[in-house]
Amino acid sequence: MIEIRNLTRLYAGMPVVDDVSLTVERGQLLVLVGTSGSGKTTLLRMINRLVEPSSGRVLIEGVDTATLPAHLLRRRIGYAIQGHGLFPHRTVAQNIATVPRLLGWPRARIAARVEELLDLFQMDPAAFRDRMPHQLSGGQAQRVGVARALAARPDLLLMDEPFGALDPLIRAKAQADLKDIQRRLGTTLILVTHDMAEAVALGDRIAVMDHGKLLQDDRPARILTDPATPFVADLIGTADRALRLLSLIPVGAIAVPGEAEGAPIAPGATLRDALAECLWSGRSALPVEGGGVVTLDALRAQARHP
């Protein structure tokens, strides 16, 4: 568990992060969202002390991070940034092995961990282990960057705009992969973005910041339906709020007994996916894998009354 207590950072006497307090439970994915200059990246960097707080405390599992040597603290916390940040003259395997090597892991254990992570990210070790960063696509390099951050099995992973440099199709796949891997590993994750759609797609909770202040910290559905301030409402927007709400609910949650024609949809697909399929195929109902149906009327009702 991470506890941020009254955290403040001043530059030239002005607060960039202003008395922020929040708690992240073990295994949660918290998204810090806000416009440029809101203080979200500074807040993230104070957690691993890349930026030192002017006042306030950060506790990880009850331990005040100020009591730990900064370099040792950072080895316990995974950190991934926009543009992947890979060392250009090291191979994929050498990049992933960076922190385990610093921690003195045996060679065999490091090699096994590199293979494990490449398999986890669906990158054949034989094909990718010895490649250089310039030989990777943008999506592949980003996956290697996240694998490097996870290499030493950190309990906490910090990510700063990790998908900002990716094109939309690769970005959507990278987001889905990250969420799946985070669930499977149980890693506590704090991610910074300026994109509210990304925050809704990924977060168990969303913390909205503006001018260094924490404006709202809640579940995505609550933020979408009950924004705490006009700024939060503006950040959400109104044009596709219903679609964002539908993206939070799996098909299995509203499936009912019945039968329908056509290819079935997975129960774990979102209601937004189901709505798109109904509209694209012209069907009024979709069969659900494993039994039952989801109807267009039910999807419309859910969008009106989440």
From TrEMBL:
<dbReference type="InterPro" id="IPR027417">
    <property type="entry name" value="P-loop_NTPase"/>
</dbReference>
<dbReference type="GO" id="GO:0016887">
    <property type="term" value="F:ATP hydrolysis activity"/>
</dbReference>
<keyword id="KW-0813">Transport</keyword>
<dbReference type="Pfam" id="PF00005">
    <property type="entry name" value="ABC_tran"/>
</dbReference>
<comment type="similarity">
    <text>Belongs to the ABC transporter superfamily.</text>
</comment>
<dbReference type="InterPro" id="IPR017871">
    <property type="entry name" value="ABC_transporter-like_CS"/>
</dbReference>
<dbReference type="GO" id="GO:0015697">
    <property type="term" value="P:quaternary ammonium group transport"/>
</dbReference>
<dbReference type="GO" id="GO:0005524">
    <property type="term" value="F:ATP binding"/>
</dbReference>
<keyword id="KW-0067">ATP-binding</keyword>
<dbReference type="InterPro" id="IPR003439">
    <property type="entry name" value="ABC_transporter-like_ATP-bd"/>
</dbReference>
<protein>
    <submittedName>
        <fullName>ATP-binding cassette domain-containing protein</fullName>
    </submittedName>
</protein>
<keyword id="KW-0547">Nucleotide-binding</keyword>
<dbReference type="InterPro" id="IPR003593">
    <property type="entry name" value="AAA+_ATPase"/>
</dbReference>
<feature type="domain" description="ABC transporter">
    <location>
        <begin position="2"/>
        <end position="236"/>
    </location>
</feature>
